[in-house]
Amino acid sequence: MTQSLPDVALPPPAPTPTPAPARERGAIARLSRSLRGLPPAERWWGLGCGGLAGWLQRSAQGLAGEDLTARFMALLTRVREGEPVLPDAAKRYQYVLVRGMLGDELPGYLLDNVQRLERRGLDVLEAPVDTEGLLRDNVAVLREALLDAEHFGRTVVLVGHSKGGVECTATLALYPELRRVVRAVVTLQAPYGGSSIAHDLATTPEMRRLIDFAFPLLFHGVSRSVEELSYTSRMEFIRKHPYPAGIPTVSLATSRLSRLSSLYPLQRYLHDRYGYASDGMVTAVDAEVPGAGVVRLSDMDHAEAALRALPGFNRYHPGDITEAMVALALDAR
């Protein structure tokens, strides 16, 4: 006969503590969390920008400019040897430098460019543009800078890197009467015809979702500023507002495909997918402003004209590039 056990009230189970949510330290952690919801990589890319690079050169507006590469290299050699290359008249002008995309976020960006011109005794102003802002807003900033210069009897040389070069040319396209204030324009690696990387980011839905999330969060920027550099947006803008003829302008168009470059993955992406020669952000053919004198280099990435690299990883110094390009621009007619 089995003996039944008396009913004994068991103590309630100890409550399981609710774990505290893991802290996401800053914007990078939040960005990483957002990546988990993206689809597999093979679905990211869509149609892309195949066949669009160089569209402007193939159009009626793609006026071919003079190839100034040989003259540039001769000037660059003299600059590196410490010889003066700027004309005496260079000190009559004010030099307005315009940063490109994310320029406010990168330590040392355009620092060597500014310091080189200042060491040559030139009056230099960095335009207070929002480097992650919209084109029209930054054009308004440059317009005010030109009107201020005119008020004080100054003539301006505009020098813009990357997106900054697009904003320099857009200011004169939207306000052609301001050419009276401008002695010359220098564009350094500007995606005048559009940026292949920006186009793919803006037109691929999953990647667009990423920049819509990351740009405001990480950089307090406007994601539409990336879309403005796509081929579609640049086509529309240029057809409505072509760059005025007769303004002395020189453009630096570059490409590189080297594992020593910090932008090698992007260079390789554009090369392998489309066959484009690029500096990692802009294809060489899209950096040429119609009618401008052009310097074409095949061994420079998109950072080298604005940021100093570690020794052995590049062939150019931003200050040397700027001094030689300005000398070319002041010699242009």
Main structural class: alpha/beta
CATH architecture: 3-Layer(aba) Sandwich
Strand content: 5-15%
Tell me the count of domains: 1
Q: What fold name goes in the CATH topology slot?
A: Rossmann fold
What composes the largest sheet? 6 strands, parallel
Task: Please give the radius of gyration in angstroms.
Answer: 25 Å
The CATH superfamily turns out to be Alpha/Beta hydrolase fold, catalytic domain
State the helicity in percent bands. 25-40%
Oligomerization state of this entry?
Answer: single chain
What is the spatial order of strands in the main beta sheet?
Answer: 2-1-3-4-5-6
Strand tally: 6
Distance between the termini: 117 Å
Low-confidence region ranges = 1-10, 14-24, 34-42
The SSE order reads: HHHEHEHEHEHHHHEHEH
CATH class: Alpha Beta
- Molecular shape: globular
Residue-averaged pLDDT: 86
Helical stretch count?
Answer: 12
Blueprint of the fold:
Elements (H helix, E strand, L loop, with lengths): L25 H10 L19 H4 L10 H12 L12 E6 L12 H9 L3 E4 L8 H17 L3 E7 L1 H12 L7 E7 L7 H8 L1 H15 L4 H4 L3 H10 L8 E6 L9 H11 L18 E5 L20 H14 L2
Parallel strand pairs: 1-2, 1-3, 3-4, 4-5, 5-6
Helix pairs in contact: 1-8, 3-12, 4-12, 5-6, 7-8
Structure, explained:
With 333 residues, this protein is an alpha/beta fold. It has twelve helices and six strands. It has helices spanning 26-35, 55-58, 69-80, 111-119, 135-151, 163-174, 196-203, 205-219, 224-227, 231-240, 264-274, 318-331; strands at 93-98, 123-126, 155-161, 182-188, 249-254, 293-297. Strands 2-1-3-4-5-6 form a six-stranded parallel beta sheet, with helices on both faces. Strand 1, helix 4 (111-119) and strand 2 (123-126) form a beta-alpha-beta unit. The longest helix is centred in the middle third of the chain and has 17 residues, at 135-151. The radius of gyration is 25 Å and the shape is globular. The termini are far apart.
